[in-house]
Amino acid sequence: MKKSLLCLSLLLAVSLSGCGKSKSTPPPAASATPAATSSGAASKVDAQALFKANCVSCHGVNLEGSVGPNLQKVGGKLSKDQITAILNNGKGAMPSFKGRLSDDEINSLAAWLSEKK
Asked: For the region Disordered, what residue ranges are annotated (predicted)?
C-alpha cells in the first residue's frame, strides 16, 4: 500500500512539474510571416507555436487536456480578457506566464484561444 501510494505521488509530482518548468531555449515567438487573426489584422506572434512551446505538456497537442483542462472550446466559456488574466496571473496549478511571455505573446495566445468555440 505504501509503495503504490509513493509511486502515485511521484507520478503526480512529475506530471505537475511539466506545467511549471522553465524554458531552456526560447520558443519560436515570432513567425517569419505574420499570421492573420480572425479580425484580419496581422499578428507579430505565432500563437500556435507559443502554445506548442509552453502549454502542450499540460493541455495536450490537440488542446484535449491532460494535467490541465481541455481547451478545445475555451473561447465558448471564457472571453479573451478572462483568458489573458489567467495567462498573466495563473489559476489553480497553472503558473503565471507574466514575465515568461511578453504582453504581445500573451495577448496573441489569449486571442487564439478565445477563438476556440
From this structure: 19-38
